[in-house]
Design brief:
Length: 166
């Protein structure tokens, strides 16, 4: 009887170990793929050369106002058309600092004051660079466009910016 109990206990233990090991078998991992983030046109932005009243260039803009939108900005985007940009709108005028964490495309960052004049630039910001890119004077708005466009359009401090929402 004791031998039967030992054998039964032994087989029960083996059975439990076998099934516990089998149930611990690694399950296939779910791979989550990030859907591409596409441009959403929220309005248009025009830049007027200082001293003129005619729009020099127009951009389609995506507007960023919420905390989440401001924190993510153009992150995780693989491209943007040269006629597109992102306009960040802040509640106050302050020194602004941006970085390129998780930003895949090089950018020109344009700082704009409360009177809608360009006051500072950070040109040719490198993708994925986490160094702070700061305005040289306080700004209320920040406009991001593809790198090199600010120079190709000869944008300057003092140029006037106008925008309208859709």
């Amino acid at each position: 009887m004791t031998t039967f109990k030992l054998k039964a206990g032994f087989f029960t233990a083996i059975f439990c170990i076998f099934f516990s090991l089998h149930s611990c078998k690694e399950q296939p991992k779910n791979i989550v793929e990030r859907a591409p983030i596409t441009f959403t046109k929220d309005g248009e932005l025009s830049i007027l050369k200082k001293g003129t009243e005619t729009a020099y260039i127009k951009f389609d803009i995506e507007i960023s106002e919420s905390e989440y939108e401001t924190q993510t900005g153009l992150m995780y985007r693989s491209s943007m058309e040269d006629t597109q940009g992102m306009l960040f709108i802040f509640e106050d005028v302050a020194m602004r600092s941006f970085y390129m964490k998780n930003t895949e495309i090089p950018l020109d960052i344009i700082f704009i004051d409360e009177n809608m004049h360009i006051v500072s630039f950070q040109k040719n910001a490198n993708p994925f660079d986490e160094a702070g890119l700061t305005s040289t004077v306080p700004a209320k708005y920040v406009f991001e466009i593809n790198a090199g466009i600010a120079d190709s359009l000869n944008l300057e401090v003092g140029d006037l910016v106008q925008f309208q929402r859709n």
